[in-house]
């Protein structure tokens, strides 16, 4: 599992520098430069570790992969140092953690290797690799097991206040026992990590395995203080090295000894482990020239040599490869992937201080290689381990299969002729209760089974029986004394299994004289690869590997990271080989035996649950047969019995179970498969063959079984099988007037027919002799093209062959209904769901009173026919037909545009049931347009007028017709469209274009607006004068003002507000100056010059256009600032309705694109008001952030940056939003990201925005609001309440009108 975890840059540098420093102290390479000052003692590894821990770096002495930048390693491993549960009695292990869900299924048993893996909790592959290495270090494992409850305590006593429980060693013991004895594919480390104090976040973080190794050893040493295992770590892993500096003049030797639990060796520019050790412990470093050493004896700078040697070698040597380095040029970490060799056996004599001991004292064998796959920021760990005690089954699967296959082929070629003695021997051994048998008894049982002895039948091709068994060692296993034989596959069952009563199987096979567990596997293993049995333990997966596979980890992205050696002279006791129980305490043996028994019980229950199926038994005595199917006479609960049975049982077992359920059944008992159909229950196949299994005959979970006598139900014969399946058909007929529900056009009923029935039978049952039937196999709501008439030649077909299934529809048309449909070549082109009615209301208001009639119609009915029919029903004179038209009426009672009389109902887009009005006037033809038009700007107060024009008429001709009809004089008018707000919108500027060309449609509303349109390419721009106002003291009362602005009809006038007598600035004043007609290609400067020529502009003294600032007007307020005087107006995209306001300036102004114009106002200290605002230009070309704005404002007011607070004002909400300076507190890591711009949410800073400033030196109140803001918010709240009330009133009115309309329709 990949864990791609990012690391902090700064902390990564610290880790690399520390490791680089440690590598310098260890490598003893020649220095090119060195200080000439006297050299003091070099800090030891432990000194560096203490210094870094005080500095906050914690245990990060190794810059391994997957480091967390937030100190994850320290937080993760800190509890191992500080929070030992044994020192804090009464604290439950893992308190506060969520309960872990119990698995629904039991864990899988061990695989063919007979070794257990470890589950990965999300990112704990590094922990799993280290734990497996410690497990396969027998001396460490047995020393840990030797500590009993009297020294470590018991996990059951953890919650007792006075009990001293050493949780970490206990959990480690328990985990090792599970890995050795528990029959499961992978063990869990949850309890162990809980004892570390880890939370769920730590379990998904990946850390350095070397760091964990050191800290776990430290935690164990701390936890084992006061026990017989207090020196466990030092005894197995502790070694010493000595650093010596020899003076070349007085030969004085300065010596310093260092302790180590592991060695870190360089990888960069080194070919292998032996070269790295040579550089560290053989080569000398010389102090000469400018790099001299101060000798304590000579008391001066002298030439000297420096070297290091290994003084004491531990029994187990741990070597960490420095694969992770830091590139100071690129300023990034990287992983060394170059080739780095290491031997399987290494002689450390050249690197030791003492070299006169026996060779075995210096020989070390490799037994574990922890491998890292990935890069320096994340990856995955797994471990190659040598099975020292030969606990696993080392046999490559493909080789074993190939060997067995070759043996069988060889046996067949030797003349076996379709007989395989291997199979017979395996069956004999597998049938033995003890799973093993003496060799001579095997020959006797073979004679009893085959009727002929081995020597007579197989001695010649295969040799003696014992030789044949020995040649098939991959199948058979001899006892140590060679007298008994068993199947190799039974070894796993003997090791992990338990009997049906849950008792320890070890005692079982001890009673049967099987006492050779410790040797039976070793005999086999020593025959393979000279005892080099390596396994790849990759979390939960364990597989055997060859020794040559380890050489693949010399280099690459997946390469060796830590090496573990053991002294060659360490020998294991004979009874430890192939005996996973060796050294395990009795209480753990009992716990594992009980756990194995529970696992076998759960697996048996799970196996039974997986094979159980639920069958639904339908009893014939509780069913009736009618309408072609079976129906329960009682409720379903009373008619059906549920039966759970193992699908591996036979049909005879099922029949016996049914007999037991039905105590009083008489006669034959037949079981038939059944299925619930829409028509009811139908029977299919009778079940025969009592010897067949239920799975074999195809019975699945949830199957329906009908229990009957096989002939009849309730005295009625029942036909079974696919040919007699009942089909449920929907039969549709045309609904008559007032027949069926509201809006329904059909009456629907359901009929059941056998699928073998002929269509002629359907016709006789459903219609008269002259009627027709249409069928739709897709259902009643399908398209008309799916409906077909059943022809005479198809009457002999059956329901099944025709394609009718459950849910198919049949339309029955009697003779008088056939005129309402159009059938061409058997296809229905105008289908019945279009047959409905329209309502016509008399609005002519002649002699006849206002009446409402219903007219039957289809979607193809022509509107002229509907009009004539309606006039006849309303008894109107036919000569009025040319002066009357039909107009739709909407829900609000408004008359819509007339419908052309040559349109059909479909073309007129009318829905069935729509209401039409019969009105005076001619209906427009298909080439004419019916238009509404209004005059002026107040569209709500002016009634709409109607006109009919040709769609080929021009815009000017249409305008003249409207002016003529409305009686307006003159030609200073133009037409505009209505926008979505029902206001005058876009002007129809192309007067010579036809209405069709400008996309004027039937029923559109146009506005006649006063004034001529400007020539093409010209803009007519209203000009406003904009000037902020300043007043003294008190003006209008506060309660009559909103934020100091009083709005009046006409000019937008303002007045001051507040109680202060100082200068208070209000919002603005806009005065209309006139209209300017100007070309779109003119510049902004031309617009300003032309505005200065307006008559009302003469009262102002403006020297030049540079003293004017131009804004667009949006919602009667300045909107967008127009900056560049030389830019064309078309480039500003002003639009036809744009308005411009001009603001006078005291000096010339030239704004760059990056300048931001802000209205800045300083808060009056101690009052809820502000001084007059000033314009502030802020250059945002570099950055537009909160910090930059604070710095600009602080410089403007000559205040410290940290002594001001700023906020942006939102006048439409009367709210102030503080501009946060959060960027000053963010971490260095986050500061690398692009800081948020004030142009974006939530500030959306733009030109003209108001920025409030508070001087914290004079006023520490950070509330920016004023009394005007409070009044404005209150008025907004009152407006919202009134709007809600109006909305509720309108909704009630519309609902009442809608109800009246629906009642009127019905």
From TrEMBL:
Would I find Hydrolase among this entry's keywords? yes
| Molecular-function annotations in GO | cysteine-type deubiquitinase activity
Task: Write out the entry's keywords from A to Z.
Answer: Hydrolase, Protease, Signal, Thiol protease, Ubl conjugation pathway
Q: Name one GO cellular component term.
A: nucleus
- Name any one Pfam family assigned in the record: UCH
Q: Where is this region: Disordered?
A: 27-46, 88-112
Signal peptide as annotated in the record: 1-15
- EC numbers listed for it are 3.4.19.12
**The USP domain covers which part of the protein?**
116-568
Q: By its UniProt entry, which Gene3D superfamilies does this protein fall under? A: Cysteine proteinases
Is Ligase among the key words of this record? Answer: no
Database matches in PROSITE patterns: USP_1, USP_2, USP_3
Per its record, the protein catalyses: Thiol-dependent hydrolysis of ester, thioester, amide, peptide and isopeptide bonds formed by the C-terminal Gly of ubiquitin (a 76-residue protein attached to proteins as an intracellular targeting signal)
**Gene Ontology biological process terms from the UniProt entry:** protein deubiquitination; proteolysis
The family classification in the record reads: Belongs to the peptidase C19 family.
The identity of this protein, by name, is Ubiquitin carboxyl-terminal hydrolase 40
User: From which organism does this entry originate?
Assistant: Crocodylus porosus (Saltwater crocodile)
